[in-house]
Amino acid sequence: MKKVTKILSMAIATVLAISVFSFSSSAAMSAAGQAHQRELTTEEVQAISTMFKADEYVKMYPDVKNVLGTDEAVLFDHFIHFGIWEQRQPSVAFNVDCYASFNADLQEIYGDDIVSYYVHYANNNKSESWRATPTPSHAYWYGNTVYSVYDFVKGQKGPKAGAVPVLSVNYHPNYD
After folding, report:
1. Half-sphere exposure of 86 (CA within 13 A, CB side)
2. CA–CA dist 139, 136 (Å, integer)
3. Whole-angstrom Cα distance, residue 68 to residue 75?
4. What is the rounded distance in angstroms from the CA atom of residue 115 to the CA atom of residue 80?
5. What pLDDT, on the 0 to 100 scale, is given for residue 40?
6. Do residues 136 and 98 touch, judged by C-beta distance below 8 A?
7. Quick one: pLDDT band at residue 32, thresholds 50, 70, 90?
8. DSSP assignment letter at 151
9. How many alpha carbons lie under 13 Å from residue 80 in its C-beta half-sphere?
10. What is the per-residue pLDDT across 98-156, written as a single tens digit (0 to 9) for each?
11. Distance of CA 72 to the CA centre of its chain
């Protein structure tokens, strides 16, 4: 009887440990981020690398710095495998939610394809300098409403019905 109890206890402990670890490691990423996560092409990685600033990334995300340190290659690897999908910023100069929210013409083309917004900005920033500055500070200063990039639908201007802003005149975390 003791042996059966011990085996059952070990099995329960193992299942519990796996459940807790799995939940903890995926908790940082939204369900939408997990649903969109994929391997990036070489061209996408190259374009996005032009926007990434490791020194700014570690200042914005001390949780990443605490775990991974400050090596630029390691941080960029984290960004392209996790940070993009978690909607982290590659630098202080670019926020994907702001970029998507400020550009209704791109919403129709890309919808919730988060990587396409990064690539478009990386490849067209200089030739399309007329576009609004894609940062939360700009949105806050001008009273813009910002939605999650995952709230946009291909072929539609504006967020899907029922979408809740991540930043607005009445809701602006970190800008009080």
Report:
1. 16
2. 5
3. 7
4. 10
5. 95
6. yes
7. confident
8. G
9. 21
10. 999 999 999 999 999 999 999 999 999 999 989 888 999 899 889 999 999 999 999 99
11. 18
Q: Is the pLDDT of residue 18 over 50?
A: no
Radius of gyration for the chain, computed over Cα atoms and rounded to the nearest angstrom: 20
Sign for the pseudo-dihedral over CA of 77, 84, 129, 59 = negative
Structure tokens at 172: 């602006």
**Token pair of 95 as six digits:** 């926020």
The DSSP secondary structure of 60-115, one letter per residue, reads H-HHHHHHH-S-HHHHHHHIIIIITTTT--SBTTB-HHHHHHH-HHHHHHHTT-HH
Q: Which residue has the tokens 């300098």?
A: 129
pTM of the model as a whole = 0.80
